[in-house]
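Quick one: structure for this chain?
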Amino acid sequence: RPTQTEGPLNQADAIAETGTEAGQTANFDYFDKFSFAFWIKPRHGTGTILSKMQDTARAEGYAVRLEEGRVQVLLVKRWLDDAIRAHTAQPLPLDRWSHVAVTYDGSRLAKGIQVHVDGEPVAMTVQLDLFNQTFASAGPFRIGQGGGQGSGLHGELDDLRIYDRCLPPETVLLLATKTPLDAILQTPP
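Got it. Here's what it folds into:
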């Protein structure tokens, strides 16, 4: 079980490879629109942030990972010929809190994936854009782990949110603010 530490909004989970399982939640498929939003403070540049994928060679499902510091989004039926694999062009800074939002519009295309860092959309690099079948997975929803031994996240996560819709940019920008909404409303014009 992750330990608790101070996060930008709440008590964050400090994850050192172990992560946690959240059962059968976030059961999305390739025609579903969905979004994930979270605060992350990575200690290493590689590791799984969240996943709903079985740890098998087939590994159908989805995952959001860090790969050499870049946020990588995987939607997988088969790794080599029926998947979307895309990552941010720039890496996240290590040892600093960043807000990340990942949206998917249900289009079955890589251009339907957008990653926002600190409320702003970032450039994406597409590695694979061939998607024809369901990626629904019977695997559990995992936070900070998934993808086999040694693939867990090293860092801290705060305020993970899961949405069954593709969030618009203005909502992502609102989620990326550290100032509570009621404090913003009390600010004089």
